[in-house]
Amino acid sequence: MSDIRKYLRSRFGDEGRILELDYSQLEIFVLAHLSGDKQLRQDLMSGQDLHGISASKLFGSKFTKAQRRIAKSLSFQLQYGAGYKSMAAQNNIPESLAKKFIDQYYSRYPMIRLYQEHLQTEIEGSRRVTDRRTPKGFQKGKSKFQSETGRIYTFWEDDAPDWMANPRYPGAKPKATTFSPTKVKNYQVQGYATGDIVPMVVGKLFRELCIYNNAQGGEVVLFINTVHDSVVFDCINESHAQTWAYIASTIMKSAPKMLKEHLHVDFSMPLKVDAEIGKNWQDMEEFIPAPF
């Protein structure tokens, strides 16, 4: 693993600290909200190790760290539309094991399957023919889907994979084109998490940070970057890192309230935020923000 993060240090010198605040499993919380799956909501609310649960069902209760990583990888791949063949190939496991994982996952979280099937049906149902062509020369269909936040997603058909174009099971009808299941399942979840929630929160963080720095008489905390669903700050010292960690994590946790206020959306899940502080971006230690 690259240690490039070790060289990303505070500009404030030896007393400076890097602070990273990271939404814990943001996309999974979004999926729980969108699908309404009761078991997933319960697992998240009670702090269950989702990947540990999957690994135990797949490999037994004495699963290894490597097996947990496989279960984690399979979970994300399935949520974003991968099939058992690609899941098996990417994780170097038998196809039978990938199939077993899929069956067990949807058995525990049945509402996720229904939610994904509903999305696919809705997008296929709003299909409109266009004058565009696929690489094989078939007319492309186009469909639009509007999320509850108002974001509009546009989906384009492409050539169907061979197993759909030339089905080998009785009664199946061949398809020349199809909307990508990966995009259908993936776009709204990732768009909601890192396209809607994170940018909205970043705006609030920046405004509050300006107020905080003004109150301190100068820039004692600097906003460095966002990385997927985390935000990174450069702080003049440990004290300001801890103080700002509490303020910023409180703002990040209030995202459901912001969704209600600005987009009139009733987001049904609380959000969790993890914090780490260190002299560089690699050697970080967990910090639990508390009122100061």
Explain what you see.
By secondary structure, the chain is of the alpha+beta class. Among the domains are: 4-28 and 192-286, Alpha-Beta Plaits (2-Layer Sandwich), CATH 3.30.70.370; 38-108. It contains 11 helices and 10 strands.
**Quaternary structure classification:** single chain
Q: Which architecture of the domain at 4-28 and 192-286 does the CATH hierarchy give at level 2? A: 2-Layer Sandwich
CATH class annotation of the domain at 4-28 and 192-286: Alpha Beta
CATH third-level topology of the domain at 4-28 and 192-286 = Alpha-Beta Plaits
The radius of gyration computed from the alpha-carbon positions, rounded to a whole number of angstroms, is 22 Å
What string, H for helix and E for strand, traces the elements in order? EHHHHHHHEEEEHEHEEHHEE
The count of DSSP E runs of length 2 or more, i.e. the number of strands, is 10
Rounded to the nearest angstrom, the distance between the terminal CA atoms is 36 Å
Number of helices: 11
Q: What is the overall shape?
A: globular
Give helix % range.
40-55%
**Strand fraction:** 15-25%
Secondary-structure map:
Blueprint: E1 17-23, H1 26-35, H2 38-45, H3 50-59, H4 65-79, H5 84-91, H6 95-108, H7 110-125, E2 128-133, E3 139-146, E4 152-156, E5 158-159, H8 162-165, E6 177-178, H9 181-216, E7 221-227, E8 230-235, H10 238-253, H11 255-263, E9 273-278, E10 284-286
Antiparallel strand pairs: 1-8, 1-9, 2-3, 3-4, 5-6, 7-8, 9-10
Helix pairs in contact: 1-2, 1-7, 1-9, 3-4, 4-6, 5-6, 6-7, 9-10
Q: How would you sum up this structure in a few lines?
A:
This protein is of the alpha+beta class and 292 residues long.
